Amino acid sequence: MKISVFGTGLLPASARRPTLIRNTCLKTLRAEKSRATGDLNIIFLDKARMRKMNRGFLNHEYDTDVIAFNYDPPAFGDVYISAHMARLQAKDVGHSVLDEVLTLCVHGTLHLLGYDDDTAAQRREMFSRQDRILGR
């Protein structure tokens, strides 16, 4: 699988780690025993562009941390991550922006693999998987 990372310039210098981001996505795919092929794109957006995507595709009037879109097989998908929300959430939970970026990469990749977080039970399942993959 080809994994590409775009928009890291929106992140603080300490979080601009495309190789680590790619490896974290691969680790997620391996942990979930995925046989996915194709391309996985991780795209960082600013607040305005993420809000526009959230409004246009999901009809939500707010910024969000991650939006993931699957391609038709055999391709894989795109994970859009708000650089703004990564900073805010990192501060809220008390870890680095890099740690939050990696968490959001895992989260988005899990969405592409079919996991959802609409209900409390689904969120617990996803967060448990994220923590296991990230070694927490």
What does the model show?
This protein has 136 residues and is α/β, with parallel strands linked by helices. It has one domain (2-133): Metalloproteases ("zincins"), catalytic domain (Collagenase (Catalytic Domain), 3-Layer(aba) Sandwich), CATH 3.40.390. It is 49% helix and 17% strand. It is built from five helices and four strands. The protein has a four-stranded mixed beta sheet with strand order 1-2-4-3. The two termini are 26 Å apart. The mean pLDDT is 95.
Give the overall form: globular
Specify the oligomeric state: single chain
Distance between the termini: 26 Å
What's the architecture in CATH terms? 3-Layer(aba) Sandwich
Index terms:
136 residues; alpha/beta; Collagenase (Catalytic Domain); 5 helices
Task: Write a compact overview of the structure shown.
This protein has 136 residues and is an alpha/beta fold. Helix content is 49%, strand content 17%.
Secondary-structure map:
Layout: E1 2-6, H1 18-31, E2 39-45, H2 47-58, E3 66-70, E4 77-82, H3 83-93, H4 97-112, H5 120-133
Parallel strand pairs: 1-2, 2-4
Antiparallel strand pairs: 3-4
